[in-house]
Prior knowledge:
mainly alpha; 5 helices
Amino acid sequence: MTERKPPGVSFESFIDKQIRDAQARGEFATLRGAGKPLTDDDTTYDELWWIKQKMAREGVSVLPPTLALRKEAEDALAAAASAPSERLVRKIVTEINTKIRDMMFKPPPGPPLGLKPYDVEEIVRDWHERRGLHGF
C-alpha cells in the first residue's frame, strides 16, 4: 500500500522519492516495453488517438461516405461479374446506381464521388460475353 505524504513535504518531493525508491527496488525493470522506444513518435496531440489505435488493432476503418461508395461500387461490379443470373446482375447494378444517384444529388462532405451511374445494359452485355452467351 502506498504510504501517505508526510505533513510539510511537498507533493513533488514525496512523489519523486517514491519513484526513486521503486527504481532502486527494480520495480520498473519488468514493465512491458521497458527499454524499448515508444511506438508513436508523432509529436502532435490528437485527442482521438485511443480510438484510432483501437480501430487499427481491431482492423476497423471508417471511410468518408464518397470513398465508401466508391469501394461499394467496385465491389458491386465484381459481384455483378460473378453473378449466376442476368436477373441478379440487373438487381446489383440497379441498387448501386440508386446509391450513386443519391450521392450525386445530395453530396456529403469529403472528396468528390467521381462516379456516374453504370449502364445496366452494357454490364449485362459484358456478363453474357464472359459466359459465351450471345443474344439475350
